[in-house]
DNA sequence: AGTAAAGATCATATTAACATGAGAATAACG
DNA sequence: CGTTATTCTCATGTTAATATGATCTTTACT
């Protein structure tokens, strides 16, 4: 559904929302916590900063923070920085021009679901995902229920 | 949503359902009609044959045919040959192990849509997509309304 | 001013998807 | 049996995503 870059971005933003309320968090910290390659995450966070989702501070004491409160950050604003959701991404058969006006064979069947997916990313916010099992390093055991 | 390989496969299967009822169709014919690289489509159709969706006949008069009638071919049986729909494909954040039992942060929010997507590919058949604007070469003008 | 801690940037490597080209294997048919 | 039309297979090329490593730049603090 999402590129691994977009997944990294989402997980990092969630981590910032949960742990970065008071002070900026460093790339290395987030990368270690989530098991994401450091320099790769660095570039991802940098792009999120360029896109206005995060702010970055260089130098000692620097790091990344969310610009807006989690309730004001739809998943789409994170994900669209890396994955295209426009045009032929929406057409199941990959036609450049696929619309109600000029539909592909699957158009009427796929349309509803496709719109629901768009709505999901537009309407779900980072805050909606907080308070659940926080995303940690995938494949790392996680002692459970007392 | 789908890899371009899976899209090619879907479009080719649709073409076979519409034009290959009486006789097997040749790779070159389908490739030309749909604007898909010939040898690439050849491999795709071969894999669909190995997977039991198509039958192939070599030699003169050969080509490809659907094994079952279009009503009996769910889109999933075409698509799953190329794109994985299992495991972490279903998890929005890319966790290997993401389930009701061990959910990621997005699990409860994404679950419903994810299941609807699965259902779509399982319940929609090739026959459902017939009788609409047939998929042709993308980006090719298509003389329209009289 | 010097130093350490951070992000920013550049060059390069790795991998998988997508694609092309040439030829081998198979089958029909005269 | 040879010719021709077709799929099948292998080798290779191209491109984009993913990842790594080295170095540059900025900032806070002493």
Question: Could you explain how this protein is built, in words?
Answer:
2 copies of one chain form a homodimer. Chain A is mainly alpha-helical. Helix content of chain A is 40%, strand content 5%. In chain A, strands 1-2 form a two-stranded antiparallel sheet. In chain A, a hairpin with a 5-residue loop joins strand 1 (54-57) and strand 2. In chain A, helix 1 (4-19) packs across helix 3 (38-50) and helix 2 (27-34) crosses helix 3. The two termini of chain A are 34 Å apart. Mean pLDDT of chain A is 90; it is low at 139-146. The A-B interface holds A 1-2, 4, 7, 10-11, 14, 88-89, 92-97, 102-110, 113, 116-117, 120, 124, 128-130, 132-135, 138-139, 142 and B 1-2, 4, 7, 10-11, 14, 89, 92-97, 102-110, 113, 116-117, 120, 124, 128-130, 132-135, 138-139. Chain A binds a DNA duplex (30 and 30 nucleotides) through helix 3.
Write a brief structural summary.
Chain A contains five helices and two strands; from the N terminus they run αααββαα. Chain A is mostly helical. Chain A starts with a helix and ends in a 23-residue tail after the last helix.
Keywords:
two-stranded antiparallel ribbon; DNA-binding; mainly alpha; homodimer; elongated; 40% helix; 146 residues
């Amino acid at each position: 559904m999402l590129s691994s870059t977009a997944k990294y971005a989402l997980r990092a933003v969630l981590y910032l929302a949960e742990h970065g309320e008071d002070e900026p968090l460093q790339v290395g910290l987030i990368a270690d916590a989530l098991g994401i390659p450091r320099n790769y995450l660095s570039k991802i966070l940098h792009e999120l900063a360029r896109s206005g989702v995060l702010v970055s501070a260089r130098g000692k004491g620097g790091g990344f923070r969310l610009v807006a409160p989690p309730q004001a950050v739809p998943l789409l604003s994170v994900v669209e920085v890396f994955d295209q959701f426009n045009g032929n991404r929406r057409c199941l058969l990959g036609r450049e021009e696929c619309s109600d006006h000029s539909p592909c064979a699957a158009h009427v069947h796929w349309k509803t679901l496709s719109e629901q997916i768009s709505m999901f990313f537009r309407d779900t916010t980072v805050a909606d995902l907080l308070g659940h099992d926080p995303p940690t390093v995938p494949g790392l055991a996680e002692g459970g229920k007392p």
